[in-house]
Structure formats: C-alpha cells, structure tokens
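debug: dumping io for the single-chain case to check the tokenizer round-trip. Nothing else runs in this session.
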Amino acid sequence: MRLPLHRASTCGFQRVPEKALWAPWRSCHSANTSLSTAATALSTTSASPSFLSALLEPEETIPLEDTTRTYTTMDVVERCEVYNPREPNVTSHDDASAADSLDGATVGPLQRAHAEGKLWSHFVGAQSSSASSSSAEPPGWFVQLCKDLYYRTDSSTPNAHNVDSLDETARESDPLAQRHVEAAQRASNWRGMPSVERSSRHDDLPQQQESSVAPHRADDAIEVDPYTWLPFDLLDVKDYLVGPYVFPPTSTYTTEQKVKLCLGQRQKEYVCFCRTYCFPERWQIPTSMGTQPARLWVDPSCPTPVVFLQLSPDFPPAMWLPIRATVAAVRGVLSSFAAQAFFHREEQHAVFEQRYETAKRVMELQRLPTSHEGDVLRFMAYEARNTPYLDAPLREYANQQEFFLGEYDDPERLLEHVDLCPFFFAMPQLRTVTDPHAERMVPTVEGAGVVPSLYRCIFSKALIQISVHLSAEVKLPPQDPESFYFLWKDSQVVPKMKIPVFARVSWPDNNNLSGGGLLGRRFNRLFQTEFASDVPVDAIIGVFYVMQWAQRVHDLLGVVGMRQRVAELEAATQLPEAAKLYPGTREIPNPEYTAQERLGMHIQYLSHLGDPQILDTIAAVLPAAAAPVRMGCAKAALIAGDRELFRRIVSSEPPGRMQHYMTKLVVKRKTRDLVDPEPRLLEDQYEFAAPLWTKRGTRIDRNTLEGAVDAARLLR
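debug: decoded output
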C-alpha cells in the first residue's frame, strides 16, 4: 500500500494523510464481515422447512385472470390434426362391428330357418302344407308377384290371359321404344329366313341401323336400354339373401344414427328375392348404362304385402322405397328411374362424350396410359375444375331447396367428402377448388362472391350445388393490411376464418323418386332435418352422408333451424361481451368474432336459405343494431331482392367506412349472381341508384322526394 503512495509523491501529486487512506480499507473489511454474517443467516433460514412452504404457498396471492384466459378463450387457431399412417382411415366401433357380424353366434332365427329349409314358416300369412304340418308354403301374394315378374304379366287385370306383357304398354306410349322393338323383331325374323335372302344388300341395312342404335359403353360392351326392358332376376329360394341390414365398411355412422337408419331395430331380418333394374356405378359417366342392380326385399313379419326397393347396398332400411306388392306398382317405380336416366342420357350424353375424348387426348399428349377406362374417367373428374360455368346445367329442374352446411376455415375439407360420397357420381358436372389464401378468393366484406361446384345424384339424376360464399364477412378490412399480415406471420399463427357453405338441391318433378313423400317426412322426424317431402331419396341420404362423415350434422340447417340459431345469437348480443385477448384497432383489427358479428353473418344465411319472413326479421333487428349487424342486414336485403330496403339502410348509415363498404356491395353484384333466385342480365339492374351527395354536412338521397328537391337546389 505504501509503494504506490511513494511513487505518487515523487510524481508531483499532493500528499494524502495516511489515516484517510486507511479508512476505506476498514469500511470494506466491515462490509465483508456483515455480508458473511448475512449469508450464514440465509443458509440457516433456507435449511428450515417453513421457508419452502411459505415460498410455495404465500399468504397473499394476486389473481392473474388475463394470463389464465390466454389458452382458454382464444378462438383463433383450431387444434392441429396429426396424421398417423398406422391408424386406419375409417374408425370402426367395437359394438357396431359386433352387431354387424354375421357369424354363427349372431345368426338370427330367420337365417337359421332359411338354412334349415323352413323359411316360409316365418312369413305372416304363410299357408301350411297338407303333407306335413311342420312345413309351410309362401304366401299367395308373394307367389303371384314372382309369377308376374317372371312371365311379365299383370294378374291384377280382370282378363289377365288376354293382356299382353307390360312391355306392350311402354311400346305404345313411347315411339322410340316402338322403334327399338320393331328393329329387334325384324332382326329375329331375318334369322329364320333362308341364307340367300339374308345375304341381300337391302336386308343388311336395318341390321346395321339396329347395331348402331344399341347403346355402347366405353369398353365396347353392348347393353339393352332399360327404358324398354326392365330386368327382373328372380333368385332361387336357396340363394335368397336373408338377414339384417349390414352397413358397408366405409360408412362412418354413429351407433345412434345406425339405430335410427334401421328404424330402431338393428337386428331386424329381411329377405331379398330379386335383383332388378341396373344403375350405373359412381365412377362411370353419368349417362352410362347400369352395372349395379337394385334389390327387392320383403319383411316376413309385416302383415301388409309390401315390397321394399333398395337402390344400392349403401341405402339403409330407412331409405328403402316401399312399394305395393303388385307388378304394376313395382314396374311403375322402376320405370320412373329408367325414364329419368333415359331423358338424361338423351340430353347430356354428347357433352360427356366430348369431355371423355378431350380428357383422353390430353392424356395422350402427356404420354399417360389410356388403355384402362378408369384412368380416363378419373382424369375427367379432375378436369371438371376446368369446365366453364356457363356449361353447367344449374337450372335443369324447377324444384329447388337450399341448406346450410356450416362454417369452415378450409371448405375443401368438406368438398373432399362430397367428392367421395357414394350417392353422387365421381365425375362432377362442375368443380371449383376453393383456396381462401389466394388473392382472388380472400373472404372479406366485399369478397369475390360464390365458388360453385355441381354434383349429380346417381339414381334420380338430381343436382347438388355446393356453394362456398366468400362475401359473407361483416368485419371491415384492416386499414394497415401489411402490419396485420406481418403480425400474424411473425406469430406463426393463421387466424381462423368462418366461411359459410350452402347446398342447393334441384330435383325432377316425380313423386315416385321420393317414395311418395313418406320417407322424407320420416327422415325429418328421425334427424330433425327440413327436407321437402318430394326430394328424392338419394339426394336426402347423400347430403346427410356428407354431413355425418364431416361430423357436422348439427350444422345441417334449413329455414327453421337457422331462425332458431339467429334467435340464440340475438339473445347472446344482450349479454356483456367477454374481454378480448388484445384490443383491436382500425389498423389491426381483432380476428376473433364477436356476438354482433356472428348475428350479422347469420342474418345473411337466413336470407340465402330463402326465408319468407326475412324482411320482418331485418325490421325487428335493425333499429337497435350495431354496425356489423347493420352490414349483415344490408347484405340480407340485397340478397332478398328488396333494393328499396337496401337503399334505406345505406342512407340511414352514418358517414364512414361502414357506409362506404355498403355502397360497394352493389358493385360486387355481378360476381354474386348465383345467390339470386333468377338471373340478372340487364346492366341497369346492377347500378346503385342512390348515390350520396354531401354538402355543408347534409346528406342527400336523390331517390327520395326531399333529396330530389335538395339536389335540384344544388344544381341551380
């Protein structure tokens, strides 16, 4: 310590007293001593167990509500789905598989009697045999039905022997069928002529015409037109299909849904005794001739003579068509499906032939194999996304009904289920891929409009139009979209959107395709749906199949269900709004949906569904509505076609961004033409006839008398 002091004095610095230099050293020494004493006391305190308990369980706690709500109330991102290749695509329940198994332990009494040759003893009304009291004979109505189907006669006619076969009636009522039959008769007469006459040149011409008229498939297989010939393939008694209905392994119905689709009796046994009119497979061209036969079933326990028509193995018993046990009734129902297929083939077959040749030519240019017909048809289904919208037969049928299918962040997940539905053709009439992240498909308050896709039912040829609406938002877009985008991009979170999807069912006017209306009404009671009574059975079960596969049956709503949901949302708007995770601003709005915004969107949905009371709903909600609800009411009025109400809503809106985007809705009217009940073709039907002029803080509407007077004063 003294050496530095000596050197400092020699350098010319002022000499410091030695006592003053020793004072800091004493203070440092005392500080070190106190620190060591405190450390010893701390180690002694930490060793005691009471310190840990006081640290982990303090006497006073501060509740952090926002921190606990971070992971419970944020409705922005849905749960990630991780694909496991080891798990099967279709999950099967143990109880359902056990109930559907037909092994020896679950064989029913009817199956056991069929194996023992005592099937008729379980039929109600069976006649006991005189030779043996244990054996029985089939009921009389069943025997007569089988005879009529086999010999193609109608025993219900008073003079059945003089009545020609049922094909004669079809020939007389249809000239094209008459031409087919005459050509077939001439061909049969030529076979009995001498060889010299058959070799003549003039006799070969009708034969060539007949071969050209006969329908052909893509694989050169000649088939008979089912409109003139309905096959009835009666089975032997030993070949009867006996037992309860077994759901296909690809079906994803729940146990409760299976019980309802079996009418409350999963183990009820039926008897299939005949295969009849063939329908096309779903992967064929929609105008192809059939390869998959339908089945005729009977219920042995039913006292009334009834025959059930199962169009395909995918139809559960609740969707089997009940037919009176007469050959005329069976022929009448099957002829309805055959006639519908015939008319559809006459109108659309040329279009599908052109699409088939185009797809095949494209595959050849790309050096893809075209030898197998399935490859070409699969490529045709892919090329449906390139079909022009004007070529789609959207207004083929007059009967239409709209359904709400729910809101989705990615609508393609639902459309993938529609593509694989066993009741729709695999080749859509029109297919549009929905990409919400594409620049031209961003769902905003002034979105691109409607993304349509059109599917055809296999059996009734009804049309299912799936529409994804990209302009149903009521949120105003961010004023700083770049900051909004980078905020969520940096957080590695994509806000979840709510994009509505609707289905419009169009069907032909034929009551036989719906089972007389009984099946639709019963289906509505079972599943609380709102299908019209004359909707074909394949359209009903097809829409329901897609929704249950997507696990969104609760979102399959009609007008009544949407009214109830709007009432629930209106009651929710009266409650205090829950605090959001962060405050939204005009520059960066909050992506979460409030109850007011949900109400404004659902009022639009109610108008899309064609509610006849939509104007009364708007009038009841509008007076005390918030800004998002007013935007929804304006859109609903525009969809409903009430332009006067739309002008009134826009004129009463305070000046600002909301009113600005309301005036831009009519500009987007052309792109949203698909929501209209009738097409709007004139240019003046799209203009906004109520421009707003402001001067000296006064808003003028030139469509009103006062506005016209004020505008005339300004123009002086």
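debug: round-trip ok. Residues 559-578+590-715 form one domain.
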